[in-house]
Write a structure and sequence with these properties.
The chain is an alpha+beta fold. It is built from 8 helices and 7 strands; from the N terminus they run ααααββββαβαβαβα. It has helices at 2-7, 16-22, 41-58, 71-83, 143-154, 160-175, 189-192, 215-225; strands at residues 98-99, 107-119, 125-135, 139-140, 157-158, 180-188, 203-208. The protein has a 5-stranded mixed sheet with strand order 5-2-3-6-7. Strands 1-4 form a two-stranded antiparallel ribbon. Helix 3 crosses helix 4 (71-83). The protein is elongated. The model is unreliable at 1-11 (pLDDT under 50).
């Protein structure tokens, strides 16, 4: 497989460029090697800094310049501690369930949850808004936890379809209900800043579980989401 990657040979009838430009998802789970956490964060930062420095050097940048010489280390810290922190299960938000003492039996909707992610095909930003709804089965969670779950799954190299499903499945498990809906509306810089260079389009994906697959409930959700 490594030889095919280096030579851009087709896999399963598709070139790697075609996979990236067509934004084809590879599966529900983020592709991770079994040894993904054998190195410590410090060791990962050192390796990333070295290799990113090599990329900068290959591009002809002067790494002795005051503005550039700390960039490899800054990028390494950013990758591990910030924009790809969601790859580490240890950073997964802890969630406490509470009894639905108010006996609120209608859907709860939180709109316009901002998120920043990165396209796994080109490592450029994806950013937009998430809308989440659920119907309590007797348990509720704090509103900020919805934001934290979105942020956790956004902070990794992503495909929007996968991210949508990961958030939906996680919330179903946490809330102990199938009645969960997730909608992501996002802008992809791999579309707007390269390739077709379309700066106006956004991509919308949705996860509808349980009662949200029923027309009446879905129509109610769509009404709530109207500006």
């Amino acid at each position: 497989m490594l030889d095919a990657l280096l030579k851009n040979k087709p896999l399963n009838g598709h070139s790697h460029d075609a996979y990236g430009d067509d934004h084809l998802p590879s599966g529900m789970e983020t592709p991770m090697r079994p040894d993904a956490f054998d190195l410590s964060d410090s060791e990962k930062k050192a390796k990333i800094a070295y290799h990113f420095g090599q990329i900068m050097d290959t591009l002809g940048l002067d790494l002795t310049d005051d503005s550039l010489k700390g960039t490899p280390q800054r990028v390494a810290r950013m990758y591990i501690d910030e924009i790809f922190a969601g790859l580490n299960p240890g950073n997964k938000p802890s969630v406490s369930l509470f009894e639905n003492k108010y006996q609120y039996g209608q859907m709860l909707v939180e709109k316009n949850i901002g998120f920043y992610s990165n396209c796994e095909h080109h490592f450029v930003p994806i950013f937009g808004k998430a809308h989440i709804a659920y119907i309590s089965s007797g348990k509720v969670i704090g509103l900020s936890k919805l934001n934290r779950i979105v942020d956790y799954y956004a902070r990794r190299p992503q495909v929007q379809e996968r991210m949508t499903n990961q958030i939906g499945a996680e919330l179903q498990q946490m809330l102990q209900t199938q009645d969960v809906a997730v909608i992501l509306d996002a802008k992809h810089l791999c579309v707007s800043s390269r390739g077709i260079r379309d700066d106006h389009s956004t991509t919308v994906t949705a996860f509808y579980g349980g009662k949200f697959q029923e027309n009446e409930t879905l129509a109610q959700l769509q009404h709530f989401l109207k500006d």
